[in-house]
Write a structure and sequence with these properties.
Chain A is an alpha+beta fold. Helices cover about 25% and strands about 35% of the residues of chain A. In chain A, strand 17 and strand 18 form a beta hairpin. Chain B is mainly alpha-helical. Chain B has a domain of about 180 residues: MetI-like (MetI-like fold). In chain B, helix 7 crosses helix 9. Classes of the chains: A alpha+beta, B mainly alpha. The complex binds adenosine-5'-diphosphate and magnesium ion.
Chain lengths: ~350, ~300
């Protein structure tokens, strides 16, 4: 793993308002050097705003951003050792691909032979050497995206900001680029701050993820942490697929709660620190198995074929809908609609959430 | 886009007829008429006699003395008028660009709602006839006009500045007449400009000045070129401003041509010839520009 954990970017109590609109309500984040850090959240939650503050295109309303320990409030964007891959790439339309990639180097005062060589290397890295003399308009979306990436990486920034760089690509390309981006980050050792609204993208690439909603950071953690131990209703609902049930909470002690499901089934599960009363319980569909004679009973409504998986839609005793996911293995027995089945919750399937 | 939907093809030809008619009647026909007239013989008191001759062109380029009995020499009178007109129109274009670009930029970067208001304000004076506006300008700058009176009353000058009947006054008139033709196309280009490009440049360590020079200007260049053409070409042929503000001392191509078609002093074939020479100059300039642009495109 990483030898020492220096903090690349330290965001402290940052508030950003645009007139009446408050885009960020006091965001604090520490982003480690050499990390692949992702800002994940639905559209409009303030991800782009946070990136633009780091890049210097906007000024914070209050709070502070530090880059390797130094405040960058007074630094113009063209003096920050931070480069951006823009959402719609923002390639210079009148310049060839190689001139686009060499632009930052030229601005840094690198002479023509040196910057041509370096830009050539960057193009090689993104597999676009054959397109050096084309204009951006003559490239496909995926190719333009690579040029934007090469252009931002060429000056070897300390931090690379990526604003939904894959959102305009089709699925296959997007999946391939995820792997390449992650590889690139590991190879270069540059801190990546990656913005996306796609939770799958976030889970597959990131070292750490900050889940944002309505201008606030809801949770920061590894992919596993935010998936397995979401701190609140928003995170559980936004990350992956889950069953959310309103349950009666009797007792919470040492991170475990005793709860009663709507149908009367009573059991203990890991819990966020909440007071007894009614709260939301998250049950991950892939952590539930069909076990004859199990305590929790349900009736099958429908089975949805998803290829690698099967989705079994059932109703609990009180009629509330519930989803189970089964692997589509050869031995999987699929119950028909109307069948009464028993459900077994594996350890870690259920988690009580804060509101 | 073009050629995409082939179901339009059978309709294309008939639909183009109005366009061709307009171009034919309003663009090609008058030019053709001019070309023909420039090779005809002049009728006294205006009009032409249908006799083919090169007299008009000869008169423009060659002199044989006051009574036509000396050896042929280059006639500098009209060439000088052309040179001065090109200079005036060039200065006018430069001034319009210097003032028009920031103006267009300012308008294009206002919030969408206020942009229309600014554009309206810019174009308001142009609802008034050009003649009226030029005469008004003359009233403003004449010896006992508000400009001179104002400057004298605050003690900045002792006597009135002699503005009327100078090249400066003509320049002022031209500038005022054609400024919107610079502002509007540049405005359209800047409005379409993607400001993320400027951010990308700043992100890649470019200063504001470098961003303007290397990114903004090249990207909005079509608007700038359109503006320059739209100002330069009519300024070159303008006659109201030189007539009304320049008096007898400053003579531009436009006035020269105008004079040939006015009253009994007129000479239609000569006026037509001057027009044809002007037209060929303009076309040549555009052609050179188009080729330069094409060469740059290939690069
Ligand atoms: N320049 C701006 N002026 C006014 N409101 C803005 C501006 N930029 C962003 N906002 C608002 O701030 C909020 C967050 O926007 P943004 O950061 O773009 O979200 P995201 O990138 O997560 O989709 C939104 O409500 C948006 O409307
Ligand atoms: Mg965004």
């Amino acid at each position: 793993m990483k030898s020492k954990m220096t903090t690349a970017i330290d965001i402290r109590d940052v508030v950003k308002t645009f007139g009446e609109v408050t885009a960020l309500h006091g965001v604090s984040l520490g982003i480690a050097d050499n990390a692949f850090f992702t800002l994940l959240g639905p559209s409009g939650c303030g991800k782009t705003t946070l990136l633009r503050l780091i890049a210097g295109f906007e000024d914070v309303t209050s709070g502070e951003i530090r880059l390797f320990g130094e405040s960058i409030a007074r630094l113009e964007p063209n003096r920050r050792p931070v480069n951006t891959v823009f959402q719609h790439y923002a390639l210079f339309p009148h310049m060839s691909v190689i001139d686009n990639v060499a632009f930052g180097l030229k601005m840094q005062g690198m002479d023509l032979p040196a910057r041509t060589a370096r830009a050539g290397q960057m193009l090689e890295m993104v597999h676009l050497s054959d397109y050096a003399d084309r204009l951006p308009a003559q490239l496909s979306g995926g190719q333009q995206q690579r040029v934007a990436l090469a252009r931002a990486l060429a000056p070897a920034p300390k931090v690379l900001l990526l604003d939904e760089p894959l959102s305009a690509l089709d699925l296959k390309l997007r999946q391939a680029m995820r792997v390449e981006l992650k590889q690139l980050q590991e190879d270069t050792g540059i801190t990546f701050i990656f913005v996306t609204h796609d939770q799958e993208e976030a889970l597959t690439m990131s070292d750490r993820i900050a889940v944002m909603s309505a201008g606030q950071v809801q949770q920061v953690g590894s992919a596993q942490e935010i998936y397995e131990a979401p701190v609140n209703l928003f995170v559980a609902d936004f990350i992956g697929e889950t069953n959310l049930l309103q349950v009666e909470v009797h007792e919470v002690r040492e991170g475990r709660a005793t709860v009663t499901l709507p149908g009367g089934h009573r059991f203990a599960c890991p819990s966020a620190p909440v007071a007894p009363g009614r709260h939301a319980l998250s049950i991950r569909p892939e952590r539930v198995t069909i076990t004859p004679g199990a305590d929790l009973s349900a009736t099958v409504d429908r089975v949805v074929y998803l290829g690698s998986d099967l989705q079994v839609l059932v109703r609990l005793a009180d009629g509330s809908p519930f989803t189970i996911r089964l692997q589509n293995a050869a031995r999987t027995e699929v119950p028909g609609p109307g069948t009464r089945i028993g459900l077994h919750l594996e350890e870690g399937a259920a988690r009580l959430l804060a509101d | 886009m073009a050629g995409g939907d082939t179901s339009w093809r059978p309709l294309a030809r008939p639909l183009l007829i109005p366009a061709w008619l307009v171009i034919g009647i309003f663009a090609l026909l008058p030019v053709l008429l001019m070309a023909v007239y420039s090779f005809l013989t002049k009728e006294f008191r205006g009009g032409v006699i249908w006799d083919f001759t090169l007299t008009a062109y000869d008169q423009f380029f060659i002199t044989r003395g006051l009574f036509g009995d000396e050896a042929a020499q280059v006639e500098w009178t009209y060439i000088t008028i052309f040179g001065l007109s090109i200079l005036q129109a060039g200065i006018c274009t430069a001034l319009c660009l210097i003032v028009g670009f920031p103006t267009a930029w300012f308008i294009a970067t206002r919030p969408a709602r206020t942009r229309a208001v600014w554009l309206f304000l810019i174009t308001i004076p142009y609802w008034v006839n050009l003649l009226i506006r030029t005469v008004s300008l003359k009233f403003l700058i004449r010896d006992n006009g508000p400009l001179n009176e104002g400057l004298m009353s605050i003690g900045l000058i002792d006597g009135p500045l002699p503005l009327v009947n100078t090249n400066l006054a003509v320049q002022l008139g031209l500038f005022y007449s054609y400024l919107p033709f610079m502002v509007l196309p540049i405005y359209a280009a800047v409005e379409r400009y993607n400001f993320a490009l400027s951010e990308a440049a700043a992100d890649l360590y470019a200063s504001r000045w470098t961003t303007l020079r290397e990114i903004v200007l090249p990207v909005v260049r079509p608007g700038i070129v359109a503006g320059c053409i739209l100002v330069f070409v009519p300024a070159l042929g303008a006659f109201l401003a030189p007539d009304l503000l320049g008096g007898a001392k400053t003579f531009m191509i436009g006035s020269l041509i105008e004079e040939q078609f006015k009253g009994s002093q007129g000479n239609w074939p000569f006026g037509a010839a001057v027009s044809m020479i002007l037209l060929s100059l303009v076309l040549m300039a555009l052609l050179i520009y188009a080729r330069a642009a094409a060469r740059e495109g290939e690069r």
